[in-house]
Amino acid sequence: MASIFVQDAYRLQLKLFLYEVKQQQLLSGVRTFLKVYSTISLGKLANYMEVDEPTLRTILMTYKHKTHAVDSDGKIISNADVDFYIDDDMVHVVESKPVKRYGDYFLRQIVKLEGVINDMDWVKLD
Predict the structure, then answer these.
(1) Confidence of residue 39 (pLDDT cuts 50, 70, 90)
(2) What's this model's pTM, rounded to 2 decimal places?
(3) Domain map of the chain by residue range?
């Protein structure tokens, strides 16, 4: 009896996983088109993605859902490098925020600090 529950749980997890993989493929496709266009009609985008408009609207809302989160203050924030909004039947792509490169900044600061320390060591030796 327990074996049946394990198999059912396995099948459910597999089904959910495959559904998520399919969603991610669609989202990757819509993201690719959004990066190319600043505005595009829903009909044209649906044609490019080979889906009907209601399906495209579902894909776009799924994209919004998957790329937004709620922060600790309760504000909705975007994790996406490409964002958009729909006005009538036009999709308007919003400028994406440049990715902040904190790692590069800190590495440059470390190199500068090492230079200052080396200069100080030379001063002590004199």
Answers:
(1) very high
(2) 0.60
(3) 2-99
